[in-house]
Design goal:
single chain, alpha+beta, 4 helices, ph1033 like fold, DNA-binding
DNA sequence: GCCAACGTTGGC
DNA sequence: GCCAACGTTGGC
């Protein structure tokens, strides 16, 4: 399985919101960036691991892990005129935006804040920490995953 | 295809 | 709230 990091502003949709969702699962919709779209559509598989990251928080932090419950499919919100994510240029034959479903897995015992991530050995090359990096869905290596779970107080193995 | 203007993200 | 970095749009 591969690993990913997904950003969400807690004001908009938090880790607790995910845990409170039916079956602890939600549609990861509204991604409107082509690079992230390509990951959602082409790369992310059912069963992959997700680090749930709170952006625009104090401090920004990885707060929990989730599992991809369903691989990429067209984002329903692009077709919905009522949705804030509605894309007026949509073509039903050729959907532009994609989603995955994710299910909350484990909360970190202690959230791992951005300053701590920056200081941790082995995370120097994380996409998240790259200058100017804004990707809201991004790859995480298996090593980075293990390091962050350990920093968060979780044993790396168990589900 | 260039690039200026504009919009968004996200740390601080 | 500020603003740097980045992405997108659209005139030409």
């Amino acid at each position: 399985m591969r690993h990913w990091l997904m950003k969400s502003e807690p004001e908009r949709f938090s880790w607790d919101d995910l845990r409170a969702s039916p079956r602890r699962t939600t549609v990861w919709d509204g991604v409107r960036n082509y690079q992230a779209r390509n990951l959602l559509r082409d790369e992310i598989r059912k069963g992959d691991g997700v680090l749930f990251y709170h952006s625009n928080a104090n401090p920004p932090a990885v707060v929990g892990t989730a599992t991809v419950a369903r691989a990429g499919y067209p984002d329903p919100s692009q077709f919905d005129p009522e949705s804030r994510y509605h894309d007026p240029k949509f073509d039903p034959e050729n959907p532009r935006w994609f989603v995955v479903d994710i299910r909350a897995d484990r909360a970190l015992r202690t959230p791992v804040g951005l300053p701590e991530l920056r200081e941790a050995r082995g995370l120097e090359k994380m996409v998240l920490l790259r200058r100017g990096s804004r990707l809201s869905v991004q790859p995480v290596t298996a090593t980075e995953w293990k390091i962050i779970l350990r920093l968060g107080g979780l044993a790396p193995r168990k589900a």
